[in-house]
Amino acid sequence: PHTNFLPPDIYEEFENETSGKFGGLGIEITVQDSILTILSPIEDTPAWKAGLKPGDKVVSIDGKSTRGLSLAESAQMMRGDMGSKIVLGIVREGVKGKKDYSIKRGTIKIKSVKYTDMGGGYGYIRLTSFIENSARDIKKVLTKMAKKDGKIKGVILDLRPVSYTHLTLPTTPYV
Predict the structure, then answer these.
(1) Rounded to an integer, what distance in angstroms lies between the CA atom of residue 123 and that of residue 121?
(2) How far apart, in whole angstroms, are the C-alpha atoms of residue 101 and residue 174?
């Protein structure tokens, strides 16, 4: 149940996503109750700046209904050339009716490692997604900690909720 065949064009997109940098809107999507749903916008991306929020339902893409589309088909419709515009029809809980959001596609850079210095040789590292640079970025944080405090006494490595985009592309792609 966790295996999917990836045609060459989808595989190429998969490779781009796991590099940590790609063109798109900056959202992670899924299908919940048969409705295309935004899991989260990525901070400082076109989607974030446009005001999209977790839980928003995407009911149309450029005026075309998302009803009956697979996650891969929906993601494909949302991808496009850098600088090009897309209009997402969004239904949000607590807000009447559909609102259209016009968004200009941009470069999306995923930061998979977030770090908080807790002082005294202790640190908190949150891994937000597994991408090509994740191991290198964790190593950088640990090196920074060791230089600052002389010794690492403890690290909290938070893996909740980690995005396994590259492992389960058809269920939670970034666009």
Answers:
(1) 7
(2) 18
63 backbone φψ class: left, alpha, beta (φ>0; ψ -120 to 50):
left
Phi first, then psi: give them for residue 109, nearest 5 degrees. Answer: -115, 120
Structure tokens at 116: 């908080």
Per-residue burial over 52-76, b if 16 or more Cβ lie within 10 Å, else e, is beeebbbebbeeeebeebebbebbb
What is the tens place of the pLDDT at every residue in 137-148? 999 999 999 999
Measured over the CA atoms of residue 103, residue 109, residue 113 and residue 118, the dihedral's sign is negative
Can you give the pTM of this predicted structure?
A: 0.62
Residue 159: both structure tokens together: 């893996």
The per-residue pLDDT for 167 is 35
Write down the number of H helices and E strands in the chain.
4, 11
